[in-house]
Amino acid sequence: MKKFRINLTSPTVGAVVGATLVLLIGLICFFSSTRLSKSLSESSYDWSFGLSSYLQPDVHDAPVVIVYLDEDTFKYLDAPLSSPLDRKYHAQILDRLKADGAMAVIFDIVFSDEGAKPKSDADFEAAIRRNGKVILAADYTTSGTSVDEGVNPVSYSKTMPFERFRLAAAGVGMASLDVEPDSDFIVRRHYPGLLSEDLPSLSWAAARFLQLPATRDPDALKKDRWVHYYGPPGIIPHISYSRVLDDRGIKRGFFH
To answer: pTM for the complete prediction?
Structure first.
C-alpha cells in the first residue's frame, strides 16, 4: 500500500497553502481591532475608489447644491466675522429656494438659542414655516475617551435647535459625522445618529423626509454603511451665500 504524501514543492499545493494563509491573515485583521487592521480597512476603502475613479459617476450636474458661508459673504453684507450671521438672511435664502421649488433645504448650522435680534428670529421662523421643507441640525459634544483605549467610554450631551425653529421645521437630524473618526480624520462610514432617541443623521432625516427608497426599510439605519466618495472637494455643485442673496447670474429654477 502506497503512503499518501503531500509534495509541498508542488505549484498547486503552494498556491492552496498561500491562499489559505492570506485568507487567515485577512480574517484575523478583519475581526481584530488593532491599529494595523484599522489601517488596512481604511486603505481598502481608499483604494476601491482610487482604482475605479474612471467608473465614478459625473456629479457636476447633480440635483444637489451646496450653499456655503464664506468670508466674501460677510464682506458683502458688511457683517463682522466674529458674530453669527443675522438670521434675516437665512430667511431670505429660504424664500429664494422656495420660489425655485427646491425639494428640501438642509441646514448644518445648529440654531440652538435665541438670536441677538428678535425680529430676525421671527422672520426666520416664518420663513421655515413658509418653506415647509426645512431640515435643521442638532449636535452633540463628547467627553471621555474611547473604550478601545481602555479608559472611560465616550459620553455626549445633545444640543437641539431652538424650540421655535424646531417646531416649524420639517425634520431634525444630527449634524455630527462620526463618533469615532478614522485615524486620519477622514469620515468613511455613515453615522446613523442617536437611534435610541429616534434622532437620525442630518442626511438620513432629509432622505426620510423625501421618502427615498433607502429609508423604507425600518432596520436600514442599523446597517453598517460606508460613505460613497464622489471626488475631491468642489465636485458637488456649490455656490456662495452672497451670490444667492444678490441673485447674481443665477437663473430662475436653478435650485429646482
So the answer is: 0.76
